[in-house]
Amino acid sequence: MLATSGAAEAGDGAFGWLSGDWYLTVGATGLVAPNFEGGKKYMLSAQPIISLGKAGPQARFTSRNDNISLALVDDGGVRAGLTGKFLFSRDDSTDELKGLDPVRWGGEVGGFFEFYPTDWLRARAELRHGIRAHNGFVADIAADAFYDVTPTVRISGGPRVSFASANYFDAYYGVNAQEAVASGLSQYNPGGGLKSVGLGGAVTWKVTDPMTASLFGEYSRLQGPAADSSLVRERGDRNQFTVGVSTTYRFDFTM
């Protein structure tokens, strides 16, 4: 999700930037999605939503695809700052993953940049580096057109594209010689490149000023090293669908 920032108050020394009005947004998402990245079976799961930001110009558009963000630059038309993502672990609890090394839980940290080419379109890019779960880079790019059907209901949607480095693909899609023997999958050593292309959309309802709810859907088609993986070709599916609902609540506070 999104976070915004304002100018730091002067005269507070080294901690001056921390002074002022902040907000914390918390919530949850319930979704039906593949049981693992590249999988063909679907499962119901839940994910937390957390966003911390310094109060400033209200963001014109937010998306569930926006990861935890802290804007350091925000003039209403251009926003940039820090972003992060939590990654759940992946084990061999499903038959398709038997014999493969587990992927540890971890995260990704990096930066984001977004701007508004028009009043009804937002483009956003994130570049993140893995921590613990993998040691690669991931880049996500998305554009969303949005329209307010009523003052409290908004529809939005647009294209998505993702890229990743070889280290990322190796963690989630690679099959080394030992894993090939244990799993029965063909050995596969991926490089880096295009990860997926797709489309997403949502209907968002502003229930109250601090509370929102949304219904969303996403489709992505795996590309390049992900699509060529023996895990996907032999036991998975290039086509990945996600549908779900989410709700968030914003708490305002002053430091």
**Low-pLDDT segments, ≥5 res:** 1-14
**Approximate helicity band:** 10-25%
Largest sheet, described in full?
A: 11 strands, antiparallel
Count of helical stretches: 4
> What's the CATH C level?
Mainly Beta
Specify the CATH architecture: Beta Barrel
Strand content: over 45%
Number of domains: 1
Distance between the termini: 22 Å
> Rg from C-alpha positions?
20 Å
Secondary-structure-derived class: mainly beta
Q: Let me know the average pLDDT.
A: 89
* Side-by-side strand order of the widest sheet: 2-1-11-10-9-8-7-6-5-4-3
Total number of strands: 11
The CATH topology is Porin
Structure commentary:
- The chain has an 11-stranded antiparallel beta sheet with strand order 2-1-11-10-9-8-7-6-5-4-3.
- Helix content is 10%, strand content 53%.
- The longest helix is centred in the middle third of the chain and has 8 residues, at 166-173.
- A hairpin with a 3-residue loop joins strand 3 and strand 4 (78-87).
- By secondary structure, the protein is mainly beta.
